[in-house]
Design brief:
Largest interface: A-B, 17 and 28 residues
Number of strands of chain B: 10
Mean pLDDT of chain A: 98
Structural class of chain B: alpha+beta
Structural class of chain A: alpha+beta
Radius of gyration of chain B: 16 Å
Radius of gyration of chain A: 12 Å
CATH topology of chain A: Ubiquitin-like (UB roll)
Strand content of chain B: 35-45%
Number of strands of chain A: 5
CATH class of chain A: Alpha Beta
CATH architecture of chain B: Alpha-Beta Complex
Shape of chain A: globular
Distance between the termini of chain A: 36 Å
Oligomer: heterodimer
Number of domains of chain A: 1
Number of helices of chain A: 3
Largest sheet of chain A: 5 strands, mixed
Chain lengths: 84, 156
């Protein structure tokens, strides 16, 4: 399935990537599984996308790691927010 | 009730004048202005870089204002959040509220800035002589939110 991925904050800077369309295997069905799959990309991915380091949103709603993902979702991965 | 996310600075007096002129029923207006400090617990801060999630950030701020409006009797609310590179002493964020009586404007203004800190997707990086560091949601900000849900029963 095709997933639109957006990166903000610390991961955006350290992965040097702000967005991509990823072809994700169909058996990846949760946000947690997606992060685990992305961590296989290499050392910096493994470090920066650790479960306890990032927060995520699915289609612009904050979502937990057990949330389900679907084809054509927009998923944002970011460091904990710090506005204001 | 309106939200703006922008790089350019804002004029607090002009914003308040526009709010004041929007209704003759306003009895009081409250403003919060967040500024860039030149220090952190780690030392000197030369500037900050602010980014946001376009689309979601506007939605999140609209939602916070809606929740505040459901809880207090607001006549007007305005949030402006800047993004990009900001220097010490520059304005980062404006929250302004107007109501018939001051109590509601004070409470709603504080509520909106408190929830902005924990629910609106903005990210701040402090640029320092050693490089920089991304700030993360403070535990104290998460704690502040809890006092709003604890006070749920007494909303006017």
């Amino acid at each position: 399935m095709k997933i639109s991925l957006l990166y903000f904050g610390r991961p955006r800077e350290l992965l040097a990537l702000s967005n991509e369309t990823a072809d994700v295997p169909d058996d990846i069905s949760t946000l947690g599984a997606l992060l685990a799959w992305l961590r296989l990309r290499g050392e910096v991915w493994n470090r920066e996308l650790a479960d306890n380091r990032v927060r995520c949103a699915i289609n612009q709603d904050f979502s937990g790691l057990d949330a389900g993902i679907r084809d054509s979702d927009e998923i944002a991965i970011f460091s904990p927010i710090s506005g204001g | 009730m309106s939200v703006a996310i922008q790089e350019q600075d804002f004029d607090v007096a002009a914003e308040l004048a526009a709010m004041r002129n929007s209704s003759n029923k306003i009895g009081g207006m409250v403003t919060f202005v967040g500024l860039v400090r030149d220090f952190s617990s780690d030392g000197r801060v030369d500037s900050i870089h602010l980014e946001h999630y376009p689309g979601m950030s506007e939605k999140a701020l609209d939602n916070i204002i809606s929740v505040a409006s459901a809880r207090w009797n607001l006549i007007s609310a305005r949030v402006i959040h800047r993004v990009g590179l900001l220097l010490p002493n520059e304005q980062i964020v404006l929250v302004a509220t107007a109501s018939q009586h001051r109590g509601e404007a004070f409470a709603a203004c504080e509520f909106i800035i408190d929830y902005l800190k924990t629910d609106a997707p903005f990210w701040k990086k402090e640029l320092t002589p050693d490089g920089g560091n991304w700030l993360e949601t403070k535990t104290s900000d998460v704690q502040r939110i809890k006092h709003w849900s604890a006070k749920n029963g007494e909303a006017a």
